[in-house]
């Protein structure tokens, strides 16, 4: 059975390590803050100038002045700080973030990512994604494996304008966990009840399957 957006976030949260600074992009990545594993401390950074971002607020407790990069209301943990965009991007460009989690429209088997523009569609701009992918060494993409037409979003080559080149390290989709290396998608885990054959059929790019592929532990 394919994962929900919340379950994709839960699986990505398993990648978090103690004392890491983590940037969460717009969309599914913002949900990761709700699933921090017990026993570790993580500082979530939002590119609009927030460090120490907590989970989404309980309904009725929202503060309209506390938002993430996607303009969603969030909470701030004890010790958190708010600052301007210049300071935020100095933190990103200075490589003080250990993990970046982004959404994507397409990812290529060499690690290219397209996540900011569809030609002919109105867009607000590229946002901070260009800085994030240029500065981060560890990028995990949270995305659906296929688009609304059922076409693969894991491609041999991206067809949309690129955000970054050769930068993605791992992908968690509603069907699988994959690692990018040696110019191919390497299948690490599959969603509960989803077969390797289903994942192969939904992946346009080269997919490497070694041995028995375990189901995700969600």
From TrEMBL:
Q: Name one GO molecular function term.
A: CoA-transferase activity
Similarity field: Belongs to the 3-oxoacid CoA-transferase subunit B family.
Record has Transferase as a keyword: yes
Report the source organism: Tenacibaculum holothuriorum
Superkingdom of origin: Bacteria
PANTHER family assigned = KETOACID-COENZYME A TRANSFERASE, SUCCINYL-COA:3-KETOACID COENZYME A TRANSFERASE SUBUNIT B-RELATED
NCBIfam families reported in the protein's UniProt record = pcaJ_scoB_fam
Name of the protein in its database record: Succinyl-CoA:3-ketoacid-CoA transferase
Keywords from the UniProt entry: Transferase
Pfam annotation, one family: CoA_trans
């Amino acid at each position: 059975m394919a994962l929900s957006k919340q379950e994709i976030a839960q699986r990505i949260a398993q990648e978090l390590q103690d004392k890491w600074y983590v940037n969460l992009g717009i969309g599914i990545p913002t949900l990761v803050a709700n699933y921090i594993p017990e026993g570790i401390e993580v500082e979530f950074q939002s590119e609009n100038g927030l460090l120490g971002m907590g989970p989404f607020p309980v309904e009725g407790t929202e503060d309209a002045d506390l938002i993430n990069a996607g303009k969603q209301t969030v909470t701030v943990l004890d010790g958190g700080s708010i600052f301007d965009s210049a300071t935020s991007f100095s933190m990103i460009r200075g490589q003080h973030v250990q993990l970046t989690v982004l959404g994507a429209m397409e990812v290529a088997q060499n690690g290219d990512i397209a996540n900011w523009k569809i030609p002919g569609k109105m867009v607000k701009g590229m946002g901070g994604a260009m800085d994030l992918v240029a500065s981060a060494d560890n990028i995990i993409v949270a995305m659906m494996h296929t688009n609304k037409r059922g076409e693969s979003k894991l491609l041999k080559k991206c067809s949309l304008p690129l955000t970054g080149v050769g930068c993605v390290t791992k992908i968690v989709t509603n069907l699988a966990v994959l690692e990018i290396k040696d110019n191919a998608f390497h299948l690490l885990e599959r969603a509960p009840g989803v077969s390797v054959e289903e994942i192969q059929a939904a992946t346009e790019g080269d997919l490497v399957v070694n041995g028995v592929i375990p189901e995700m532990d969600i």
